[in-house]
Amino acid sequence: MTRASSRRPGPPTRTERGIPEATVARLPVYLRALTGLSDSGIATASSEDLATAAGVNSAKLRKDLSYLGSYGTRGVGYDVEYLRYQIAREIGVTQDWAVVIVGIGNLGHALANYSGFGTRGFRIVALLDADPNLIGERIGDMEVRDFAELEDIVKADRVSIGVITTPAGPAQEVCDRLVAAGVTSILNFAPVVLSVPDGVDIRKVDLSIELQILAYHEQRKSGEAGLPEVPELPAMNGLTDLPSVGGGVGA
Ligand SMILES: NC(=O)c1ccc[n+]([C@@H]2O[C@H](COP(=O)([O-])OP(=O)(O)OC[C@H]3O[C@@H](n4cnc5c(N)ncnc54)[C@H](O)[C@@H]3O)[C@@H](O)[C@H]2O)c1
After folding, report:
1. 139: which of 2, 103, 185, 247 lies 20 to 30 Å off by Cα?
2. Same domain as 49, residue 31
3. Is 237 one of the annotated binding-site residues?
4. Which Gene Ontology cellular component terms are annotated (predicted)?
């Protein structure tokens, strides 16, 4: 056997349980795929079926699942319900997580109205805002409450996750208040990098970055297909006296 290269990449970052972070990031994708299979009444799935449903290759999927001690049964595949339970337990979604959302504007309203969190183990316990005009507004079966109540709510409901949907300006201050109140995980939608002390996990959601990644791929696709043709200029009836390009029109 020959050695492929003398330069080896560093070891992948691993969680305390020894599962690579990249595998952890794929577990929710497998969970969603398994939920889909289960909802369609499928009791067992081969690694190929599951990989197709999750959009990954089957060798990677088998390797990922082996970290959970799940190898499937040869010739039968994986028990969908059991694997779903194993992954949910590993991610921590078999238990109920209390979440607060801070900043109930456009995005906060949309998240508050989304019913999918509850079925995935996330209980929204409070919608908080600093605007007195919003406090008391009903959204579904909840009422917007004063951000000043944060500390009491975190203590009473044992909140560990906070979602920030305020503008960028106050986001750090909101984050500091969440952390001081005892929140140890933050999902930040505000377009700003927040600092948190050790022991607090933070994740940032930025749709424009996702769109830029898609734009990058679109650009590559149009490069492969050849550049799009320059569209013809519309007929300019009667306009014959146009200045030439770079003609330096004075101010
Ligand atoms: N990550 C993404 O992909 C994405 C997409 C859209 C919007 N955003 C961001 O999400 C945030 C919210 O957007 P939006 O359109 O809902 O804004 P918005 O102005 O409609 O709502 C912001 C809310 O935050 C509240 N607020 C302001 N300061 C506060 C404070 N100190 N404490 C508590 N509440 C406070 C305001 O009263 C308001 O209700 C913005 O930062 C925006 O840039 C992110």
Report:
1. 185
2. yes
3. no
4. cytoplasm
Nearest-CA residue for ligand 1 atom 37 is 131
CATH of the domain at 108: 3.40.50.720
Task: Find the residues whose C-beta lies inside 6 A of ligand 1.
Answer: 102-108, 129-131, 134, 147, 165-168, 170, 174, 189-191, 205-207
In a domain, 162, yes or no: yes
Please report the pLDDT score of residue 242 as a whole number.
34
- CA dist 128 and 174 (Å) reads 11
- Nearest residue by C-alpha to atom 39 in ligand 1: 105
Is 240 part of any domain? no
DSSP one-letter string for 79-103: EHHHHHHHHHHHHTTTS-EEEEEE-
Here the tokens at position 159 are: 């909140």
For residues 160 and 75, state if they share a domain: no
Position with higher pLDDT, 37 vs 250: 37
Q: Tens digits of per-residue pLDDT, 143-195?
A: 999 999 999 999 999 999 999 999 999 999 999 999 999 999 999 999 999 99
Structural contact between residues 190 and 163, judged by C-beta atoms closer than 8 angstroms: no
189-216 pLDDT, tens digit per residue, is: 999 999 999 999 999 999 999 899 899 8
Name the residue of 100, 109, 127, 129 to mutate for ligand 1: max ligand atoms within 8 A of Cβ: 129
Q: Are 161 and 183 in contact (CB under 8 A)?
A: yes
